[in-house]
Amino acid sequence: MKLPELLAPVGSAEHLKLAILSGANSIYLSGENFGARKFAENFTVPEIREAVKYAHLHNVKVYVTVNILIKEGELEKVANYLLELYKIGVDAVLIQDVGLVKIINENIPKLAIHASTQMNLHNIEGIKWASEHNIKRVVLPRETEMNELKEILDYAHTLGVEIEIFSHGALCYSYSGHCLLSSMQGGRSGNRGTCAQPCREKYELNINKGKKINPKNEGDYLLSPRDLSLFEHLDEIVNLEVDSIKIEGRMRSNDYVATVIKNYRKRLNKLRYDKTSQALNRNIKELERKSKGKKGRSTDLKKAQEKENIAKLKEEQKLQNLESLEELELVFNREFTTGHLIPKNNPMIMNRKKPGHQGLYIGKIHRYNPQTEEIHILLRDNLIHIPEKGDGILIETNPNLENDNNQNTTGNNSKDNKRLKTKQDKRAKRKEKRTRKEINQKNQDGQGNQNNGFIQTYGFDISSKPVLKDSKDKHWRKREKDKDIEGKLLVIKRVRENRKLNFPLPKGSKVYLTKKNSLLNEVKDLNHKKENHYIKKSLLELYFRIDSDNYPHLKGNLKLDNGKVITLKIKGENPWEEAIKKPISNETIKKQLLKIGELPYYIEKITINNNKSLFSPISEINELRRRFFNELEEEMIASYKPKEEDVKIAEENIKGLNEDLRKRIDLKSKVENAENDYNLSAYINSLEILKELIKDKKSVFDRIYLEIPPNKDFEEISQEIIENKSLQEHELNISYCVNFLKEAIEISKDQDYELIWKLPDIAHKQSKESIIKIMGILKKMDMRIDIMTSLIGLDDSLKDKFDVELYGNYPINAYNIKTVLELNNYKTLSISPEIYKKNIKDLMEDYYKELSKGSTDIPQLELLVHGNIESMITRKELVSRKQLKLISKYNQKQRKLNKNFKENDYYIDSNEYYLKNRRDQYYPIKTNLNEDHIIILNCEELCLIDEISYLKSIGISNFSIDARWKSLDYINDIGKVYKGIIDGENNLEESKKIIDEHCPILTKANFEKGLK
């Protein structure tokens, strides 16, 4: 059984040591710049050098993240940085920007490249492209499903490409590399390592900017996913032969890194070495295989028995791993999910109630005594980490819970009633009533309505030793109030400092353990307790001999985990003398040579060849040993570094690259002398709009990017996602797509615009196969249509197979000239809408510099100047089952109110769906041809109408507007306005007035302010 590499996050020097001692095979870290976690502590170049040295000594690989998009002005700096990393001997660099792939392959070809998940290679065509571009490993998107993973793994391994998947940590709501929400909101881009995590904020689902859809007790964090954890499914991952499993969390705590890595290491080692664990896995697999592979009919009884046996075995397996599962929840969780890979628990990917750490659930409050300040917690079954003095707990209560404390404190007999007549008891009861009133007032909004999912939390450290009671203990004399208890009851006192807080503790309130001191102390003591280390030491064979001149010699063969063998020989500086009294024994020599302290070697063999009666001071043997191991360390570090001749070649290459980057041209004169034909393109997704556009004698648009809309409404698609129909992705409706494109091609015949089919920006296995089938059918029908795509890998495949021209959509992330040159298979590339105006000018200067060299295969560049930018594309659900019921009720009500409604009308089609944030901004929600994908548009429309003159002056000649989901009047008016301004015929102020009529909220986004 081959275990996958366990890849640990390292955001600081402390993380580094903890990850390695806890059992990581490899670590990933970032420098101060160019990493996707800019706000982590990160490493300077000298610190990276030391980190690499320490890791390699412990047989741990180091991958450095250079996984952001690179601005034009940063190319020289990032090239120098990549060269420095190569010289240090890092094992690979993690890359998002396609331009960096070009720089590395042309200048530092022996530097290993890993494709970041943000590069979004998610099908076998993407893997093929990676292989052809010298990429050694691809990190798959977290949205990958099991059937897709299996196909990719099989294909990748035939090409020698490794596959890495995320196994634990935070999930993004959007596909990585496709999220511009933070960028558009506040100029902090996930593509630049500064994401502000707006997905963890509160949102409201809204219809037509008027009706909010907020079910009771569901929570308002509509875009906040749970945390991923594949811990319980590691056996499946191992059997798939995934090359690397990645733990997310460079900005998490020390105890998170140490605890997560330790428990994943323990589980992986169990799967490989523990016979009990192996037998349990075999039994589960055998039962599952039998139940799935049966021919003929089985009785319901047999099926039920097999199902029950599998459930029992899995429960036994879970109990084996219970301590680890609790520790994983303790260090950080937003509740766990197995995500898209193992979707049996979908749509439980989201946690709408709480966006932060919630701790380990330990039980519920059974009762609370306000007089004694004692909280009685009924613990959940099989709980291992029971709270102790000094641990932290969090109580989560909902005011809607029935408060039984009055009953608990007043009791059911006359003695208890008499007790309430004391001043102290009356005061406690008044306080309880007052608290209830305050909470209920807080739970009302300004109009007196109940707020959705109002939950209050109360946390504290336990200040006195808790009392644990067990219902099985015959010596526990239960009070009347505890007679119904089965299990363990923990009694703790409210923390002294917080007794004045008005906080209700009703029965049924959930209790979480948020801090476990014993676990924290274990992490703190990790450096000193060797028995807790999970280091894979290098195997060393030592040979000691005395030569004919009585000089000592020490030789060693060191076997590294990467397969290399280092042989080192050293000779003592002084000969040994003939012994006058007692010669030094072989045992003494052996004893001294074995004193290696904490060095990461395991001496599996030591041979002493000394037949002479010689003497040497112990200090000389020790000096020989020290010198040997110092030189061995240097040899070991050097074995990871590139050869000197390769370094010299790379240095010369980078020097030439930088000289070329520094060359400047007179952009103004180049643009003035260029014969630019100005073009305006439009994105649309309606055949009816297309039919209307041809009625004008001359089209306003030179190109139409036509997207095929889904043939189902938003409500129906949401219903299917919730019922898991779309999570196991089905084929596109091929007949519908072919007929749609056929009609579009016929409409556009002999028109003065180019018709281009805009593909979905995500195409997993079945979508991709459907696209190929659609293109094949059109080819047989002798119909040809060019395509717009951002799917790297699939683009070349479609171009070669169907002889089409390629147009690159902006999610392809064209940030710099090197990306443009790498993607020279495209006729036109859209520049990223994230780029600041000065960065666009820098790009255009280098673009014209390339044109002046006589380059003929360089794509034209296009810029989106108007429309709602796609802020997110996601495979996760947005609408819950409860929300769908409320939507259905709303639609029924609207149909009754709508006098023109006919029985066959589909009123839902007239609804517009939005996400409303805390700033009262509305983000349109849309769907596309992939029915398991949801698109969230930016709340403001991009408008660069008054920048057209500037853009023309820096050489932009292709402009586009995104008019999908817009009316015919909008498209005609906005199109004519921009066409007139581009051609220099329209008045700018009059044009702005027309735009204002259609677009109430406008923005220049990052074009004006730039990214932070």
> Which range does the strand content fall in?
15-25%
* Beta strands, count: 39
Radius of gyration: 33 Å
Strand order of the largest sheet: 1-2-3-4-5-6-7-11
Mean pLDDT score, rounded?
Answer: 87
Helix content: 25-40%
Shape: globular
Question: How far is it from the N-terminal to the C-terminal residue, by CA?
Answer: 47 Å
| Low-pLDDT runs | 404-421, 445-450, 903-909
Main sheet characteristics: 8 strands, parallel, barrel
Question: In terms of structural class, how would the helical and strand content be classed?
Answer: alpha/beta
Helical element count?
Answer: 32
Structure description:
With 1012 residues, the protein is α/β, with parallel strands linked by helices. Helix content is 37%, strand content 19%. The strands form 6 sheets. It has an 8-stranded parallel β-barrel with strand order 1-2-3-4-5-6-7-11, surrounded by 7 helices. An 8-stranded parallel barrel has the order 26-27-28-29-30-31-32-38. Helix 5 (124-132) links the parallel strand 5 and strand 6 (135-139). Helix 9 (254-273) packs across helix 10, helix 9 packs across helix 16 and helix 30 runs antiparallel to helix 31 (988-998). It is globular and about 115 Å long. Residues 404-421, 445-450 and 903-909 have low confidence and may be disordered.
How is this fold's topology laid out?
Layout: E1 5-9, H1 13-21, E2 26-30, H2 45-57, E3 61-66, H3 75-88, E4 92-95, H4 98-107, E5 113-115, H5 124-132, E6 135-139, H6 146-159, E7 162-169, H7 181-186, E8 204-207, E9 211-212, E10 227-229, H8 234-240, E11 244-247, H9 254-273, H10 275-292, H11 300-320, H12 322-331, E12 336-337, E13 360-369, E14 374-379, E15 392-397, H13 405-410, H14 414-419, H15 423-442, E16 456-461, E17 467-470, E18 488-493, E19 510-515, H16 517-524, E20 538-546, E21 552-559, E22 565-571, E23 577-578, H17 586-593, E24 601-609, E25 614-615, H18 618-639, H19 644-662, H20 667-673, E26 679-684, H21 687-693, E27 703-707, H22 714-722, H23 734-748, E28 754-758, H24 765-780, E29 786-789, H25 794-802, E30 806-808, H26 817-822, E31 828-830, H27 837-852, E32 860-867, E33 870-874, H28 881-897, E34 913-916, E35 922-927, E36 934-937, E37 941-943, H29 948-953, E38 958-962, H30 968-982, H31 988-998, E39 1002-1003, H32 1006-1009
Parallel strand pairs: 1-2, 1-11, 2-3, 3-4, 4-5, 5-6, 6-7, 7-11, 10-12, 20-24, 26-27, 26-38, 27-28, 28-29, 29-30, 30-31, 31-32, 32-38, 37-39
Antiparallel strand pairs: 7-10, 8-9, 8-34, 13-14, 13-19, 14-18, 15-16, 15-19, 17-18, 20-21, 21-22, 23-25, 32-37, 33-36, 34-35, 35-36
Helix pairs in contact: 1-2, 1-9, 3-19, 5-6, 9-10, 9-12, 9-16, 10-11, 23-24, 30-31
